[in-house]
Amino acid sequence: MFERYPFDSEAYKKRVKEGPCFICELVAGNNPHHMIYEDQTAVVFLTKHPVLYGYVLVAPRDHREQATGDFTLEEYLQLQRLIYRVAEALRQVVPTERLYILTLGSQQGNRHVHWHLAPLPPGVPYEQQQTVALEHSRGVLAIPDDEKASLAHSIRQAMERLGPSSAPPSSN
């Protein structure tokens, strides 16, 4: 659907190791992204370097570095409820065979904990799924800015339709 362009992984590594925290900069208003949702505790936005259409990041507003250790159980579960809601909205908006949810980063770069939600489109050959689908070495999608804005808007609307709790459907 969208062409890919090469990703400069060396420049990226230098930026995340030596530059300011990209999420703290986003929260401060200095690093614009296509925002999907924000509240007092978290932000949800489209990644600037998507390898899959609809690739979203979810992060706490406060700089936290450990996926579990820097949160109380209640704070962690609150974030996971948000991640669930974003995931369900993504599945409504983007054709998805499998939704990958993971936290990446390192104490050496991208220290601010964040979760990646990456929708794998239907029909991708098995050999190109899972971690292969997430590799920047294959290039990143050249998605026009207006398409990113429209996608962010559609995901936001789907989240609003789901409501704040987004409880899974009852099996009764």
From TrEMBL:
Instruction: Give the UniProt record's GO annotations in the biological process aspect.
Output: nucleotide metabolic process
Please list the residue ranges annotated as the HIT domain: 22-127
A GO molecular function assigned to this protein is: catalytic activity
In Swiss-Prot or TrEMBL terms, this protein is called HIT family protein
Matching PANTHER family: ADENOSINE 5'-MONOPHOSPHORAMIDASE HNT1, HIT FAMILY PROTEIN 1
- Positions of the catalytic residues: H114
Coiled-coil regions listed: none
Pfam families to which the protein is assigned, alphabetical: HIT
Q: Where does the signal sequence lie? A: none
The sequence motif named Histidine triad motif is recorded at 112-116
Query: What InterPro entries does the database record attribute to this sequence?
Result: Histidine_triad_HIT, HIT-like, HIT-like_sf
> Domain of life of the organism in this record?
Bacteria
